[in-house]
Amino acid sequence: MGKLLHISASPRGEASESLRIARVFTETFQEAHPDDEVEHWDLWDGSLPDFAVGARAKMTVFGGDEPQGAEAEAWEAARRTFERFDSADRLLFSVPMWNASVPYVLKQFIDVVSQPGWIFTVDPATGYGPQLSGRGKRVAVVYTSAVWGPPLGPEFGSDFQSTFFGDWLRWTGLTDIQDIRFHPTLTGDRDEARREADARARDIAKVF
């Protein structure tokens, strides 16, 4: 039995387009894969640990030592977060655009789980080594925005949302990635954009 983990970066509930599209995806996935588990992880639910002490623990690990005391507790909390993320062989992210990039809670998630030996190794001669590659994990990402859209000029903003997040996924070794996009812009046909996004979500989910 496989597992789909939906990781949500939107706090807007029923008003969220990224969550609505993700719901279309997960419902279709469950219909097509009735024996697989589906888990939803709302990054705004308070489960992400603060990483101020964890950042010190990270550098302790980089130095070849074992975190102690408060650092050890912070490191263990980060490890539990990573293990929840790593428990699924199928990952769905719902990512709204905030100020041309991603919501800060998603960056917090990335900073917590991106640790040496878990997500990456680093070699002074060859650089970073991704740790999640070659494990058959697949990723789907729902990207949404209200103002920015691919056909528009820079006066309507820039896309550091998918460029940043896609780069992070590939850096970890997750390269089997499919995007589902909803960018109706301020003057576009929102209903048609929804239909197109929903259709793509269903098509991907059926064979995910």
Automatic annotation (TrEMBL):
This protein's record includes keyword NAD: yes
InterPro entries registered for this protein in UniProt: Flavodoxin_fold (IPR003680), Flavoprotein-like_sf (IPR029039), FMN-dep_NADH:Q_OxRdtase_AzoR1 (IPR050104), NADH:quinone_OxRdtase_FMN_depd (IPR023048)
Flavodoxin-like fold domain ranges (all copies): 3-202
Family per similarity comment: Belongs to the azoreductase type 1 family.
Organism: Nonomuraea montanisoli
Protein name per Swiss-Prot or TrEMBL: FMN dependent NADH:quinone oxidoreductase
Enzyme Commission identifier(s): 1.6.5.-, 1.7.1.17
Residues engaged in binding FMN: 10, 16-18
